[in-house]
Design a protein that fits this description.
Blueprint: E1 5-10, H1 12-29, E2 35-41, H2 45-54, E3 60-68, E4 79-83, E5 93-101, H3 105-115, E6 121-129, H4 131-136, E7 143-147, E8 153-154, E9 170-173
Parallel strand pairs: 2-3, 2-5, 5-6, 6-7
Antiparallel strand pairs: 1-9, 3-4, 8-9
Helix pairs in contact: 1-2
The chain binds guanosine-5'-monophosphate (5GP).
The site of guanosine-5'-monophosphate has 17 residues, from strand 5, helix 3 and strand 8.
């Protein structure tokens, strides 16, 4: 697997340190509140697993699966809910846990959808953010792991054709793999 990367951006230890920092902030910010973390399948599985276990306080976890409508590789921003969560979010403090924000279109749709369900609050935690999302700020990522370049990355939950999710670090996939 490692041989298919043209560069490692963050190794396991760097990611763990960042996740622990985020957990400290989340513990502080949600002190005395009932936190519901909603992970977006499949990519957010690793962030969710590590972040939730780094928290000192209670949290509940639920999951959604979504897919982008439209053709092509670019996100269209029109999102179909493939699996909804099992929990009602009315009056709940919701933290969306996402793997990576590229254009922010997927998340902005999702936030709009979840807002209409009347949660007490809604915030976003994402492992990684690409320059486009950093520029357009379509989505306010309150808890961000790392700003990364616009290259196609894999590992730490992120896949290419279903593979590489189980890499412990995050790396740039060598274009020779998909060209
Ligand atoms: P957005 O709607 O923000 O443009 O797209 C976000 C989604 O695109 C992510 O949840 C992820 O599924 C996918 N994505 C964006 N960039 C990458 C990348 O570099 N690698 C992988 N594996 N998926 C990506």
């Amino acid at each position: 697997m490692r041989a298919d990367l043209s560069a490692v951006l963050y190794d396991e230890d760097e990611i763990a340190a960042k996740i622990n920092e985020l957990a400290v902030r989340i513990d502080q910010d949600y002190e005395g509140k009932d936190l519901l973390m909603v992970g977006i399948l499949n990519g957010a599985v690793m962030v969710m697993a590590d972040l939730s276990r780094a928290l000192r306080n209670h949290c509940e976890m639920d999951w959604m699966a979504i897919s982008s409508y439209g053709s092509g590789v670019a996100s269209s921003g029109v999102v179909r809910i493939l699996k909804d969560m099992n929990t009602s979010i009315v009056d709940r403090h919701v933290l969306i846990v996402e793997d990576i924000v590229d254009t922010g279109l997927t998340l902005s749709y999702l936030i709009e959808n979840l807002r209409s369900r009347n949660p007490a609050s809604i915030e976003v935690c994402a492992g990684f953010r690409k320059p486009e999302a950093a520029r357009n700020r379509r989505v306010d990522v309150k808890y961000l792991g790392f700003d990364i370049p616009s290259d196609f990355v894999v590992g730490y939950g992120l896949d290419y054709a279903g593979r590489y999710r189980n890499l412990r670090g995050l790396g740039i996939l060598d274009p020779k793999v998909y060209s």
